[in-house]
Design goal:
alpha+beta
Length: 280
């Protein structure tokens, strides 16, 4: 199962509940792109936090030691994680701008009694997963190095989020603010409703856009420029409904029809022939 942005929203909440205040005891390497952080909190069993730069992407907490706990010799990135993070505590975990990126902040008291913060960016992007370690927004090391025209992931370069991450987080806005965004004039008058929503906001996928359009009584294929102000008001209200459902949800929703399964981070108003199950 590929994690989408709204699933990662739930994951981030669970990581906060379990990991805040935990101390990093040891870091191990399972394979070239999979790492295990052994964490300790007072009055709890040791936790094993798995971080992956593989596809499909994932991050998970194990409360029992893995049955097959064979590790490979630590390679460069694992050595960097050990150097900078062992002995530190997790002080914040946040999803960046409702994208598929989780930023984890670690604090450690150094020899001069100063508290130094390091950040681990878990980029759970299907096309380019990565784990990036940074301090003061400067990259210390990464699981996978690469250089592109708009972004370089190499040591001593400034950390920059992927270009698409600069889209807006619809959770940050109320209904009036969303309407103000939706009535903003567009350069391309031939874009569909789906294309406009995808260009404006992080956190959307085809399922969520279809749900928004169903709530708004429009089609995702409608030309956006043709929508009336009244329809855009309804569209803003629909996005707020999605926001509320997401913030109130406590797990994933599985919709079954014959052999087809649809997984969503929010409850959907889809075909009644689907059988809905929630998983916390």
């Amino acid at each position: 199962m590929q994690l989408d942005s709204l699933m990662i929203y739930h994951l981030t909440k669970e990581l906060n509940q379990s990991l805040l205040g935990a101390q990093v005891r040891e870091i191990h390497q399972i394979d070239s792109r999979l790492f295990e952080l052994e964490l300790f909190k007072i009055d709890t069993k040791p936790m094993h936090f798995l971080l992956s730069a593989q596809t499909p992407t994932y991050a998970c907490i194990l409360f029992e030691k893995r049955k097959n706990s064979n590790f490979i010799p630590a390679q460069n990135f694992c050595m960097s994680l050990r150097k900078h993070l062992e002995g530190s505590r997790i002080v914040s975990i946040e999803q960046m701008n409702l994208d598929r990126i989780i930023r984890i902040e670690f604090n450690r008291i150094e020899n001069n009694s100063s508290i130094i913060s390091k950040f681990l960016y878990c980029e759970l992007l299907p096309a380019a997963p990565n784990l990036i370690l940074a301090e003061n927004n400067i990259i210390l090391d990464a699981c996978i190095y690469h250089k592109k025209n708009d972004r370089s992931i190499v040591p001593q370069q400034e950390y920059q989020a992927p270009k698409n991450s600069l889209r807006m987080n619809f959770l940050d806005f109320n209904e009036q603010e969303l309407l103000d965004i939706l009535v903003h004039p567009l350069d391309d008058k031939e874009k569909t409703v789906a294309e406009v929503l995808f260009s404006l906001f992080n956190g959307l996928n085809q399922i969520i856009v279809s749900e928004i359009c169903q709530l708004s009584h429009i089609s995702s294929a409608d030309i956006y420029h043709s929508l009336s102000l009244t329809t855009k008001k309804i569209l803003a209200s629909a996005i707020v409904q999605i926001k509320t459902r997401l913030q109130n949800a406590n797990g994933l929703f599985f919709y079954k029809k014959a052999n087809k399964v649809q997984i969503s981070a929010i409850s959907l108003s889809i075909d009644k022939e689907y059988q809905k199950q929630s998983v916390n």
